[in-house]
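Input/output pair, single chain:
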Amino acid sequence: MGDPSPLDDVEFLARSGHRVEVLRTLASGPRTRPEVHRETGVSQPTLGRILGSFEERHWVERRGSEYTLTPSGTLVWEQFDDLLDTVETAQRLADVVEYLPTDELGFDVRELAEATITTPVPGDGLRHLRRLEEVVYTADVVRNVAPTAPPGARADFENRFEAFMRSDQQVEAIVSTGALRVSADAEMMGRLRTALGTNRVDLYRYDGPVPVMLALVDGTAVLAPLDDDGVPTATIESDDEAVRAWVASRLDEYRERATRISPDDLPS
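Output:
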């Protein structure tokens, strides 16, 4: 038989969780065989076969009593670990990525690998909306753009208003004309006028499309992909610097194209 192909070696590594764990352990530094056994829990016979196969592929070499990765082994592990991260991210984003405007994102979607993602689950179809409300309405400083009015009944709006008035929250909100129209009855406009009068709210009207709700909440980036009806399908929270920078930049762009609203601009 000839030398294994690259795909053969990828398959060889991927089809055994024990091999992955041994390579991961050695990637953090040289180990004796007893140390690898203790840290991975792989049986001694299996471990012996794995280390031998790694040596045959020149991924590992033995120096005295220790095993260490070769430069080739280090390269294999780094690239394989990146692949694992990519696949894990793809799996976690599978239910929401179809609603993300990936062609407009100013960051690699893999930057969301460590994000907290809340989605609907069987028996709790509103879980992501409750999380979105929690992170936005309990923060100290909020910047956001939203194409639709916040979900909920009038009582929910009243509760949010009262909570805001009791707080020191600072808000910059960029909303669509449609969202303002939903809130256009006299009582709700009165509440909004009162909030603007606190000088803790900067309100802007934006007339263009908003494919995904964006927010910076106490410095954390929040993305809420929207379905065809403008309803959030998930809540994504990320502290990744690239994601936060992109969200901040997009919020700046929306604000520059929006019209600031004063209390006098609101209908009576």
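The CA atoms of residues 204 and 260 lie 4 Å apart. The first helix runs from residue 6 to 14.
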